[in-house]
Structures are given as structure tokens and as C-alpha cells.
Specification:
The complex is a heterodimer of chains A (about 350) and B (about 325). Chain A is about 65% helix and about 0% strand. Chain A is built from 13 helices and two strands. A two-stranded antiparallel ribbon of chain A has the order 1-2. In chain A, strand 1 and strand 2 form a beta hairpin. Chain B has a single domain, classed as Rossmann fold (3-Layer(aba) Sandwich). Chain B contains eleven helices and twelve strands. In chain B, helix 3 crosses helix 4. Chain B is globular, with a radius of gyration of 21 Å. The chains are: A mainly alpha (about 350), B alpha/beta (about 325). Chains A and B meet through helix 10 and helix 11 of A and strand 6 and helix 3 of B.
Amino acid sequence: MSDYNPNIPPKKRPFSLQLDPAKFEPATDEEKAQQEVMRESTTFFRDGMRKLFHNPLAVGSMIVLLVILVTIVIAPLIVPYSYSGMITVDGKRDKSAKNLPPFTYSKLEQQAIDNGETVFPHIFGTDELCRDYFIRVIYGARVSLSVGFFASLIVLIIGLLYGSIAGYAGGRTDLIMMRIVDIIYSLPDTLMVILLSVVLDQLLGQSLQNTALASIGPNMLSMFAVFGLLYWVGMARLVRGQILSIKNNEYVLAAQAMGAKPGRIIRRHILPNCMSVIIISTALQIPSAIFTESFLSFIGLGVQAPMPSLGSLANSARQALQAYPYKMIFPAVGICLIVLSFNLLGDGLRDAFDPKLRK
Amino acid sequence: MSGQKHLLDVRGLKEYFPVKSGMLNKMLLKAVDDVSFTIDEGETLGLVGESGCGKTTVGRTLLYLYKPTAGEVYFDGQLVTEKNIGDFRKDMQIVFQDPYSSLNPRMTVADIIGEPLDIHKLYSSKKERADRIAELLTLVGLNSEHANRYAHEFSGGQRQRIGIARALAVNPRFIVCDEPVSALDVSIQAQIINTFEDLQQKLGIAYLFIAHDLLVVQHMSRRIAVMYLGRIVEIGPAGDIIGSPVHPYTESLISAIPMPDPETARHKHRIILEGDVPSPLRMPKGCPFRTRCRYATKECEESRPELKEIAPDRFVACHNR
């Protein structure tokens, strides 16, 4: 101990825990500055989008949907056939072009080709009324997608309004509104859909004649009405539940303590916090609406002939299933692709945006 | 009492919640039952009591976040009612217990702190708003560069500071601090408490400081009120309450304070209360505390003790003292 010098670190012994004092010097300002790495501030939305685009299933289904969307918009502009009329060759109706397999030509068309004319190929063949099947499937997908989209929109609007009123008002209002929802919820929905579409079909069919809406067809309108009347209840329940749980958060109380009015509280605090759940559920509502539409068309209550829908195409293909199986495959694959893509996209949206699933 | 000299004067505040029991039976839960107290300009009143005794409800009811069943609140001599509460929102603010649920996760810090400014239109230009937000952030000890971040990017203590900055944005004269430190760990508690004290010195704000940690309350407050089952059982200067508690409930609360020194703690006599808190739905007749009180007599069973002054500025509700 006599020759102890505080400036020289003691000799290290192999089994001791002697520490090097040099390691305990305070950090310089430069070193401190290195620690201050500011994490890039991300918004909830940007963070969610980043997650969504890292999900291969969601990206894949988005691509599929985009391809389908582009096809159904562009294809009718390119393909020279109409979904309702027979194929014509040089102005003559081509009766030989019946039930052609894909990429084949009828006798008349073959003659025209031999004469040097160009005939657009029948990509999916033709149906029993000599109509180009490809364009019918395209229009069917158009109808199915628009039914799915608009029906979900109707469900969203009604459900959002109803649910947020019930949830925010609370008390007796909530009680009565939710019992109504319970009643509608307890109705057997398939039966109601069938009954409603029969009744509405007749009612609308008479009143719609010679109006602009007639071109959409009473069946389509009654289908929207069915969705609007029956399927909003799930959305209303969801929205009410969300609002009830968000309403009790302390930041809503804090806003009240600041003197914020109810409108501001709903707009700034409640809706932004339940938006993700609502968007996800709307995205999942679309395939279910498409499926219901296909089902209704399949049993003959859907869109009106000659307007095709994927469901009604599948139905008519069923009658000649053994002779022309490919006619079943095209609309069936179409329904599958659309419904599957929307479901996967909805799942991806949920994984990316649902606050409960966030890590 | 004239109500003129105090900043806040709460008289006979009652808050009853209807509770359903069974099919048609409705019962009243007396969360706050006849509570009166005053707070002076720049003063801190500590409010303590065990969980569920109505501390938080007192704080929220006097801000009219819940509609009071009965009672009057005077602010600066003026009666506060449901209609004119909007005029007082700028003067009375609240800081919440849970720094996680009290900040909207979809808003940036600038928007959270700026919202009271927006509501009361306290700025004339965007620049003024941004400057005020930066000033508030600095005031509570946060970096003003943090304004564009979201609340989830901060730690609990930082979030609590954001909550404080939001309450301060409107230049209030009175803040209800609803257990502002109980969700934080001890070292952060000290920082937040010091922030509250600094702000009081700088800005002269009065606090109603709700907590269940007696040492924190003693440190913060000039006077302490002790609540039991919706009523104030003892109120008086902080030193006296901690040093010589009079009400048997306060006595047992004080004896339960953990001592930092093990030697003193060993010799300390702890009064352990027997039994559970009675349900506020079925309050015992007479003194609500008598079921657990060591000194309970026949008188306690028959009549409810009122607050009586036993020393200057010191009130106790007990028959035996």
C-alpha cells in the first residue's frame, strides 16, 4: 500500500473484478450528440400504410383487384361485341356462333377471315344465344363489383349515422335504437332478402318505368334497398360499440373540460379513433355483398336479363354444365378472385390499422 | 362564509349515480355526499382517501364534467352553473391520472396542446399559436421540437407533462390534479411534483391535489382534506393532519405511511383497520366509519357526526373527539 499512486491504474489480477476507470469518464458533448438520434415521426396513417405494403397477401390482392378493375373498365372499349346482342358478321346476325369454345370462330366468321377481314377472337367463347361470353363475364364483374361497392356504401352511411347517434346519446335513446337493431338482426336474413326482392321488384318495376333509374333496372335497385334495410345493423352495432368505448376515454373528458362542443368532440376525438375499424369492416362488407348478390342472381332474383352478373352467368351455365363446363369456370373463378381479394385486403387492412392488433 | 375571499368555494356538493340492481330496482350510489371546502388563490388543497371514496368524482363534479346532484360551486365569488360553465372553462382545468388514456392517440402534441387555444380562439395567427405551444412545452420541461410528434412516442412522465401543458394553455387560475403522479414511477413522480410546484410559484395557480400517497400530498399542500365514503371526515393544515391526526380514520391512514427509515418503522405502531369498506350502496347508519372504528360507541350508531371545528381552521367529523 505504500507505493500507491492514484494516477496509475493498479495491475490487473486474473480473477479480480478490477475495473478500468477510463471506462467511467463522463461522455463528451460530441458523444452525447451521437446518442440523440431523433426517430422519424410517423403518423398513424403512414405507419399503417407501410405495414399494409409489407403484407404480401394484401399487396397481391390489391394487384389482382386493380387488374380486374382496369380490365372491366377498358375491355368494353376494345372488344367490339355487346353483352346483350348476337354476334353479327357484316351486319348479318351470326346464328352459327352458338356455344363456341374459347378462341374459335363460327362458320360465317371463318368465311370473313378467309376474305381478309379481321374478326375479334371470342376469348371465352360464346353462349347459347350467340353472344360473346368474355364481354358478358366482364359486364357481370362490373355489376357484381358495383353492387358490392354501393351496397357497402349504403351500409356504411346508415350504420355510421345510426350507430353514432345511439352511442353518443346513450341512455334511453340508445336502448330503444339498439332494440330495433336486435329485432332486425334476429330476422332470418336469407328469407327476408328473397321476400323483399320479390316485393320490391314489383313495386319498383311499375314506378320506375320511363325514368332515368330504369336503365339500372329495378332488380339492382331492390338489391340495394335490401342491403340498406337489412345489413346496416352489424355496422350500427360496431360503430356504437366503438363510440361507447372511446367516449369513456379521458381525452374526451379533457376536451369537455376545455369547453369543446359535442360536434367538435365527435369530429376531432371520437370519429378519427374508430375510423380504422369502420374502414376495415366496410372492406370486409364488400365481398359479403358480392356474394349475396351472386347468390340472389343465381336463384334468379338478382339483376334482370339481359344484364349479366357473375351469379346469373353461373346459374345459366349450370344448365349445360356437362356439355360446356368452361362456361361455369369463368364466372366462378371471377367471383372467387374478387371475394378472395377483398377478404385478404380487408384482413391486411385490419392487421395494419386495427389499434388492438398493433405491436 | 361570504364566498368572496376564496378562489373556489364548494358548498354541499353531492353526486349520486343511479345504479341498477336487479330488473327494475334502481339504487343511488352516493359517490360524493355533502362535501364542502374552500381553496384560496395560489393555494393547494390535498385530497386523500382510499380507492373508491369519491376523490376523483369530487374533482370532476366541481368542474361540471358530471352534473352535480346538489350543491353549489362558487368560483371567484360567482356561482357556477351548468349554463355558464363555458365562461369558467378557461379558469378551471384538470390534469388526469392516466397519461396514456388522457391524450388522443391520433393528434400531434401541437394539436393536443393547441386544442384549448383553438376552442377559446386565443391566438390571431398561426405563428402565434405555434409560439405559444413551444412556450408551453418549454414551461413544462419538454423540448419544443417535440411538437409534431404523436403522444405514443413519449414516456409516461413526458405524456403527463403534455397533459399539464394542455391544462396550462388557457392560463387557468385553478387546476384539479386528479392523481397526476400515481401512474408514474417514483423518480418521475418527483420531477412532475416539482414541475407542479414551480408552476404554482411562477403562475400562482391554485390546485386541488388528489392523491392517495399521503407523503406526496403533505409535500404539495398547505391544507389536507381526508375523505371516507364520499364525505370529508377531517380537514385542516397539512402539518397538523400528518403530525397529529384526530379522526380515527386519518389516524390509521397516517400510521400506514411507509417509513423510509427502517429503525423508525420498526418502532412504529400501525393501526390496522378491520373489515372492508362498506358498499356505498348500503351505507351504515350513523357514522359511515363506525363499522371499522376502534372507538365506536352507541352514539356513532345513531347519528352521523357533522364536521366541527376543533382548532382554528381544523374540522373533524367524529363524535368522540
